[in-house]
Design the sequence.
């Protein structure tokens, strides 16, 4: 139990910089934005195609 407590304490108290870089975060946000825009475009296109269908 002491080993586990010591390990968890070392994780909490360590000051390592293991996070993502600012560039990675910005690029990820840009890619998400592009994906959302593409999804919105596809949705608009599909809705227009469905609306143009006529049921006879």
Sequence:
């Amino acid at each position: 139990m002491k080993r586990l407590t010591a390990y968890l304490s070392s994780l909490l108290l360590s000051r390592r910089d293991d996070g993502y870089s600012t560039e990675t975060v910005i690029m990820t946000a840009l890619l998400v934005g592009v994906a959302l825009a593409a999804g919105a475009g596809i949705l608009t296109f599909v809705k227009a195609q469905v609306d143009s269908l006529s049921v006879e």
Q: What stands out?
A: The helical segments are 2-13, 22-52. The first helix runs from residue 2 to 13. The chain is about 75% helix and 0% strand.
